[in-house]
Amino acid sequence: MNDVFLVGDRRMTAHDPGLGHPESPARLDAVLDALVDKPVEAALPAPRAALERIHPARYVDALDALRGRQMAVDADTIVSEHSVDAAFLAAGAAIQAVEAVTIGTHRRAFAFTRPPGHHAEPDLPMGFCLLSNVAVAAAHARAALGCERVLVVDWDVHHGNGTQRAFWERDDVLFFSLHQSPFYPGGGLIEERGHRAGTGHTVNLPLPAGLGDGAYRAAFDDILRPIAQRFRPDLVLVSAGFDAHRDDPLGGMEVSTEGFAALCGVVCDVADEHADGALALVLEGGYDLRALAGSVRGCVDVLEGASPPPRARPSTHEARVVAALREAHRERTP
User: How far is CA 218 from CA 31, 37, 40, 52, 53, in A?
Assistant: First the structure.
């Protein structure tokens, strides 16, 4: 069995939101240039049936109708001539990553995707996102690949509102998000825990700006690990945004390149303990090119077996924030 499956495609750089937009084609070029020594598979467009597990047919029809057009969907989300093609490739790459780690050919995967996906709600594009890549991949794993319980970890600096909404009333996918708050897109509060069958299967950790490696690692060790122990996923997915990096121009967090590699080590441990190693990362945000490329490379190295950096010690303030969040979620999750 090969260890790591990497999938990405420079055709996704044809999605061009315009000069000065932070979600630029240069992001994907920076990532793939940093991995020029690695085999990266080409992406395949997502099948419509897979998209419709998350997005209603009318939404997919409306998106299809935007092929070849240039327009602003909202103030942040721009469609160019080839954006829809890129979005189908991004969702397809996420599916390929999940298939690679569930059918037995690989233990780990990383899909290098743009446009990102975790803000796209089932019926609404937003926040640079057109299709909910991770949600589509998780739903595909449940419907077509025999997975019973999927854990989605979102470490992007922004709350993954689209992923949350997709699984709000489901108990077969547990959504765990830590994110800067208050911040775009709003929401992501502790009290948002899911509804009906999904109650307790949404876990939000809203973090004040300025926290770094120690806080993130403590949250993963003290909150994520016990939740995973109770939920026992057979697949772990990560919405891997790198805009919590200390150098990112959009975020306000202080995570280092090494800090992201350490987080990757934790999700590897969780996948090894509960999911026979099945772990797939899917790229979300990250807008400083050097920080993005370095953090992705650090995570790929860990996926390939490199030792993660040692655990960073939280400051007194960080420890108090994480302890309060741990207490708030005690006995509220599966």
Answer: 28, 33, 33, 37, 34
pLDDT digits 0-9 by tens, 219-257: 999 999 999 999 999 999 999 999 999 999 999 999 999
User: Annotated catalytic residue: which of 15, 55, 118, 119?
Assistant: 119
Whether residue 46 contacts residue 95, with contact meaning beta carbons closer than 8 Å, is answered with: yes
Q: Which two tokens stand for residue 157?
A: 């600096």
Q: Which residues contact residue 135 at a Cβ distance below 8 angstroms, ignoring those fewer than 6 apart?
A: 54, 117, 118, 152, 162, 163, 166, 167
One-letter amino acid identity for 66?
Answer: L
* pTM for the whole structure: 0.97
Q: What are the residues whose beta carbons fall under 8 Å from the beta carbon of 72, sequence distance 6 or more? A: 78, 79
Give the largest Cα separation in the chain, rounded: 53
| Structure confidence by residue, pLDDT tens digits, 58-92 | 999 999 999 999 999 999 999 999 999 999 999 99
Active site residue 15: no
